Task: structure prediction
Amino acid sequence: MWQTAALDPRTKLILVLTFSSLAVFIKNVYILFILLVVTLVAVRAIGGDLWSIFRKLQRFITIFVAIIVIQSIFTAHGHVILQIAQIRLLTDIGLLRGVQTILRFFIVIAAAVIMTTANPRDIIQGLIQWKIPYELAFMVTIAIRFLPLLQEEAKDTLTALQLRGVNLKKIPIFKRLKTYSYLLMPLLVSVLMKSRDLSVAMEMRAFRAFPQRTSLRELHFRRADYYVMLLSILFFLMLLFTAIKIS
Amino acid sequence: MTLPIVVKDLSFQYENDATKILRHLNLSVDKGEIVAIVGLSGIGKSTLCYCLSGIIPHVYGGIMEGEVLLNGKSTRDLTLPAIATTLGIVFQNPDHQLFSFSVEDEIAFGPENLCVPKEEITRRIDEVLEKVGMKEFRHANPHQLSGGQRQLIALAAVLSLQPEILIFDEAMSQIDIYGKKMVKEMILRLQAEGKTIVMIEHDLENLQIADRVLVLKGGKLEPFTGTLS
Result:
């Protein structure tokens, strides 16, 4: 069941845009940390699942370590913290830049969790009310709706492959990649058939009969939405000016 | 009197095929009649369905000769949105025709496309959900329902456009015995309301509700004598 927190999905979109664009613009680690804390507070206040952020990040721990090491190796200056032979595995600048990248990553993922608290249908309606063409908004609906089904189908095809005696864990990586390519054809055929059937079903229900269409749902901004939008714009400007001043 | 469906000398050949799948086929269906069309797999039942509903020639290409008249008007001259308000079609796989996140949105999709006012859409949703007996599932996700229930929602979505003619293209082939019972009872109720129904079937057990059963053989329709071959 989708959580339906009180805010309009468009307000949530603005929040996501604010947090993620700030994460890209700001370089200062301390300000990034403040941004992360504010993002996490916003996620919690809106009703997002904080643990889902940590679960998602767990998968990237190896990548994070690799980022710090790569930043240390390829940054010429900075004090060495850890060195093996002639290779500078960890430097203070490398560590700083690595932490910067990790914080940005963290903020973007946390901001994205805000959107999971909105009903997908409301998100589409929000896009439509923002004058995004209905066809485009509808494509987003179909993508959100059918992606999990495609995942399931890919899993089924993989299981069918394994039932024929292909043990993916035991075959070498290149052969495994080739085996994965066998998944593509049935998946592609199934996607094409599904999309063809779907388009016919939609045509038979008068899709694009007129340039305009009515809508059963209508979104209306409430006072809380205006406050949150105003706050997020002020926060955006304040953090951006502080970051510019410090740099 | 104008009949809801009249097929005159219909032949059809797909672009990549060397032979015609439908050959000089004729059919007339009376108002309020349930006609079942049976036939072996790949014989052209779905193609006939597409011709009756205007999907051929409006969506799928090929060589179509003869004509299909819906309430006296040729499907060639009607647009698909115009056909959609006269004829509704329920396909085999409910998963390939439901795409919304709630039953309510799924049903509203067609009327929204036809610019029906919001109040009228709400009224139609109430009406069709009552009709298919799925009122309590209004806010449910269609993909969390059983196969039979999903097919009833697909039917409700079609009924919201208020068509007089309904086509069921093997609509009971992917649902369990209870689902089939639900759909068959629904078809009989729709007939009682005066709807004209064409059922495309390969399962002979679903034929008992039909007033007339025809078999598609060699591209033509013949009265069904109990066997398909």
Notes: The radius of gyration of chain A is 23 Å. Chain A touches chain B through 32 residues (CB under 8 Å).
